[in-house]
Amino acid sequence: MDRPSFAARSALISALAVVAWTGSPLAWAQPLPAPAAADALNSRISSPPENSRLDAPLFYQVLKGELELKRGEAGNAYELILDAARRTRDESLYRRALDIALQSRALEQAFAATRSWRAALPQSQDALRFQVQLLLALGRGGDVGEPLRTLLALTPTEERPALIAGLPRFLQRSADPKQMATLVADAVKPYADAPDTRLAVRVALGRAWLQAGEPDKALALAREAQALEPAAPGPALLALELMATAPKAEELLTQYLAQPAAPVPVRLAYVRALTSTQRYAEAVVQLDIATREQPNEGPPFLTLGVLQLELKHPKEAETALLRYVQLASAAGPTPAQQPPAAANGEGDDDENGTLRPDRGLVQAYLGLAHAADMRGDFKASEAWLAKVDDPQRALEVQTRRAVLLARQGKLAQARDLIRKVPERKPEDARAKLLGEVSVLREVKRWTEAFDLLAGANARFTDDGDLLYEQAMLAEKLNRMDEMERLLQRVITLKAESPHAYNALGYSLADRGQRLPEARKLIQRALELAPGDPFITDSLGWVEFRMGNNAEAVRLLRRAYAARPDVEIAAHLGEVLWAGDQKDEARRIWREALARDASNDVLRETLARLRAEP
């Protein structure tokens, strides 16, 4: 199977503006809401001033402590400030002594300050929070139980659910997650059945056990929590976190999202999880709902457009991207409209790290250019590319222009266009090379692309991505021994990258060679990239080659549902055809032909089987 090239994968990662919703992290020292803060300030103004507990000698002592710190005598400063805190029982002075110890990385002294603080002010919640954190930092997780239980008991009833919900994050630095999950379970036990905390207890425990590597326990708690309060988002978000290790958790999430009032941010978080495993067709379904429910929010339209392009639906992509352009242009650039930074390291921020205000529009213009290109409208594609005014995307824009020229038979002009792009950074030379290779691949100039990469691999020694590209071109040229040698080298260099395992396993399976080895390679790839539909397709193909048709159909159906790619359709159709399910095979092939009638794998399959869709 012609797997996506490195350049294609990088372009997708850069363009995929997935809208994420992470919820509001628990703030352990929440500021007063604005009205309450105003009331508190007015109260202080109207009340008579409170005399400080610092008399002249103590004031001098504190001043001396600060001067000692400025001189670099942190130990002296700590002792002076802590002594003043003990005398005055002033929380701000305890906090200052603690801060001095922490700045000096003197954790034992910092912990001693919290003990003194608690002895002087047993009701101080801040002292308890710091003490728990320091116990974890000191590797004394087993001692966390007492201060944690005390903290929960002292927390006001109305604030306790938020505190319980945040415990897993608060305690996640523990060196022994299982011990910490047990401690959390013990600490929250008194609140497990109280109406206002029962949900938070189960969600918090679920996260704690998930961190401890016990997804089954976490899933059971998520189910309990959802049964108690089906409309609450907490259990659904826990299920979202569980999807990678406990696939059955997804049922809880989809049940929650089936409710009419399901929050759009939770739906968008699900979209992010789906796109992370390339389940683009399912992500599009969720985005369609989100955009209907919030038709004036731009980012979901941007994501929807990018995913429709990946699914080779240019008209639907244009509709979504044009809506995004309309909304973004009308509202003006704001950080909320921008997709997250490119995951492949290509910066969309300026040199000072400031968010570029036009980043979302640049993504949309590039997407609209791609959609027009897919429709064969080169003039419209160039018009959209002309709107991109971003030096950091110059190479990407010129590569797109070069592809348009190559498709019109102007290959020399196309290659020259890329070569003339200025190299702003050292890595730009490599990026230009990959751009030129992508142009040659586009017009099936396999030998020239292979030779270009062979020279590049001498210049960029042991570059795994370039070697992978060269291996894929070796396969196109039927140089199978060379392809295998290159992929084995990639596996040596990048043992945790799934692509080389998958490509090698698929190639063996497709030729019917060393099938047990091919299966092991593909299974290893799937371990590294769980749920990847292309790798699932490869596994289905090797099962078919080994005569396991029922398992092949199951795997290929799963891959096609997640990513209705033309080549996956070709494989699924062939396996169904072999099983005498010819009507369904024809239907799937017709769908694939509507997306890309020129696909080599699909055309070869239909010709070999003498099948008429």
Describe the secondary structure blueprint for this structure.
Blueprint: H1 6-15, H2 34-46, H3 56-70, H4 74-88, H5 91-103, H6 107-120, H7 125-137, H8 145-154, H9 160-170, H10 177-188, H11 198-211, H12 215-228, H13 233-242, H14 249-257, H15 264-276, H16 280-293, H17 298-310, H18 314-331, H19 359-374, H20 378-386, H21 394-407, H22 411-419, H23 428-442, H24 446-459, H25 464-476, H26 480-493, H27 498-510, H28 515-528, H29 533-545, H30 549-562, H31 566-578, H32 582-595, H33 600-609
Helix pairs in contact: 3-4, 4-5, 5-6, 6-7, 7-8, 8-10, 9-11, 10-11, 11-12, 11-13, 12-13, 13-14, 13-15, 15-16, 16-17, 17-18, 17-19, 18-19, 19-20, 20-21, 21-22, 21-23, 22-23, 23-24, 24-25, 25-26, 26-27, 27-28, 27-29, 28-29, 29-30, 30-31, 31-32, 31-33
Structure characterization notes:
With 613 residues, the chain is mostly helical. Helix content is 69%, strand content 0%. Helix 31 packs antiparallel against helix 32.
Please tell me what the overall shape is: globular
Distance between termini? 21 Å
Taking all residues together, what is the mean pLDDT?
Answer: 87
Give the % helix: 55-70%
Tell me how many strands there are.
0
The secondary structure category is mainly alpha
Tell me the major beta sheet.
Answer: none
**Low-pLDDT regions:** 6-47, 334-357
Our count of helices gives: 33
Radius of gyration over all CA atoms, rounded: 30 Å
User: What percent strand?
Assistant: under 5%
